[in-house]
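Today's session is about reading a structure prediction critically. Students often jump straight to the picture, but the first step is always the sequence itself: look for stretches that repeat, for charged clusters, for runs of hydrophobic residues. Only then move on to the predicted structure, which in these notes is written as discrete structure tokens rather than atom positions. Here is the chain we will use throughout the hour.
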Amino acid sequence: MYLPIRLAALLLPLSLSLPAQAQTPDFSGAWVAAVCPSGAKSNAAACANFVLELRQRDGQVCGAHMYASADYAQMEEGAAPSLNVMLAPGSAADALVRGAGIVVTNVSGQPQRLNIELALENGALSWKRLDTPPGKVLLPRTARFSKAGSRTLFAPLFEQELRAACDHVFDLAAAQKAAPIPGSEARAVPPVPAPR
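Below is the predicted structure for this chain, in token form.
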């Protein structure tokens, strides 16, 4: 009896000094944001709804978006996939994980690629649109998302299409990393396939 207690007493300080296993921040899942005009936070009817469904693999985020104006008169649904973001290299233990990429918007009837930035910090996802293109753009300049309680907010068939499309994007990026195409090093973000 004496030996096990003494051994436990010796091992306890050692186990307390070991660093905790860091978890990699994960962008995967369904994210929701209310985009409200100034002063309208308490009036949900005045706020637009913004949804992102994201998948993450090997430092890359792929997904789709849906945006609806406050009165649902204007809506935009991204294709599968409509966004692709490369995460900045860094420690998995960082409190803030940031990435830059593109989103394809189709609100004007013609696909437009816009530069965006996503950041994940303390369980909250922030969105920043970096471009101000000419013409109509529904997607907001900034938004702050919370993780949805559901795994997906899209229809099951679209979720399956998105998963397959993102897996294809991830596989292409992995193949390019394994055998880079000459001149492809300058491209920071693999292209999002054109909407079907």
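Discussion point for the tutorial: The helical segments are 2-17, 156-178.
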